[in-house]
């Protein structure tokens, strides 16, 4: 039962610490753009520079047939 005298104040301090960190992240702009990073992944171009339809790699060499 005596452990509650330690755990209750410790949990209140932890809640306030989490609230302060969350408030600082909101004030710092951490949650301003939630959709942008998701669209950046979709718009990323991972294809080689060569023409894949012709079977060329990015540096002009031929790709092996599939």
Strand content: under 5%
User: Order of SSEs, N→C?
Assistant: HH
**How many beta-strand segments?**
0
Instruction: Indicate the structural class.
Output: mainly alpha
The total count of helices amounts to: 2
The whole-angstrom Rg is: 26 Å
Overall average residue pLDDT: 80
Sheet with most strands: none
Overall, the morphology is elongated
Oligomer: single chain
Tally of distinct domains: 1
Poorly predicted runs of 5 or more residues: none
Tell me the distance between the termini.
70 Å
Helix coverage percent of residues?
40-55%
Write a compact overview of the structure shown:
Helices cover 48% and strands 0% of the residues.
Polypeptide structure, described:
This protein is an all-alpha fold. It has one domain. The chain is 48% helix and 0% strand. It contains two helices and no strands. It has helices at 4-27, 36-43. The chain is elongated. The protein starts with a helix and ends in a 23-residue tail after the last helix. The model has no long low-confidence stretch (mean pLDDT 80).
């Amino acid at each position: 039962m005596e452990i509650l005298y330690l755990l209750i104040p410790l949990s209140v301090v932890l809640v306030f610490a989490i609230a302060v960190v969350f408030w600082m992240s909101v004030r710092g702009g951490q949650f301003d753009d939630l959709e942008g990073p998701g669209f950046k992944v979709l718009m990323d171009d991972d294809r080689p520079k060569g023409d894949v339809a012709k079977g060329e790699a990015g540096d002009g060499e031929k790709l092996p047939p599939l």
